[in-house]
Specification:
alpha/beta; 223 residues; 10% strand; 6-stranded parallel beta sheet; single chain; 10 helices
């Protein structure tokens, strides 16, 4: 069984539930192995590597609270990519409220995750099953995920589009998104670029306003 596990989850009750589930499996964790944002998670992974005691497993949500301008890494999507660069061998499990099959499919295909567990009733048992499966070198995906018409379009969203959608659903203004992109030294960080991207997304998804776009993305579990 895994000896060193890191959990990135900003809901206290979920953190506690995951801790109990791990203890049931015989995995006893230090308080430092439970963090509430992506920057803390990335820092812990780097520190563990420098101490020659790397994590075996990262468990992360996809979205986190807080102002993205105050964070280097603002989402679980970004965290997975960042951690993979410095620790390719680590196993990664996503624990998310998003119940969309296309999201899980993309994470397995493009982000090379090892398990996707949907936060739902009975999730603790699914979480334990997933831990055992990944520990045995298998993949695991919750069986209660849904598909909808148009999922094939959403599956093709770029990383930049997904980040914009994530920030929009968190209530971040377009000017702040542009400032965040500039801080991250992304290739296109102008306000006009953000506005054009949102316009293109509205047309692609046949949605009339940015407000409805944010609502749609949240309801459909796109971000």
């Amino acid at each position: 069984m895994f000896k060193k596990v890191l959990i990135a989850e900003d809901e206290d009750f979920m953190n506690i539930a995951l801790r109990i589930a791990l203890e049931d499996l015989g995995v006893i964790q230090d308080n430092r192995d439970y963090v509430v944002n992506c920057d803390q998670a990335y820092s812990r992974v780097k520190k563990a590597i420098s101490e020659a005691n790397p994590y075996n497993l990262l468990i992360a949500d996809l979205s986190f609270k807080g102002d993205p301008e105050e964070r280097e890494i603002s989402s679980g999507w970004e965290l997975i990519l960042a951690v993979r660069k410095i620790h390719p061998a680590i196993k990664i499990m996503v624990f998310s409220a998003a119940d969309r099959k296309n999201i899980a499919d993309r994470l397995f295909k493009d982000y090379l995750i090892d398990a996707y567990v949907h936060k739902s009733f009975g999730a603790a048992n699914a979480f334990k099953t997933a831990i055992k499966a990944v520990n045995d070198g298998q993949k695991y995906c919750s069986v209660n995920l849904r598909r909808f018409p148009g999922d094939e379009i959403l599956a093709e969203l770029t990383g930049e589009e997904k980040l914009i959608l994530t920030l929009i659903t968190e209530g971040v203004k377009q000017k702040s998104i542009a400032a965040y992109f500039k801080k991250k030294e992304m290739s296109s960080s102008s306000l006009s670029h953000i506005e054009k991207k949102l316009k293109d997304l509205r047309e692609k998804l046949n949605i009339s306003s940015t407000f409805l776009l944010a609502w749609h993305c949240k309801e459909r579990g796109i971000v």
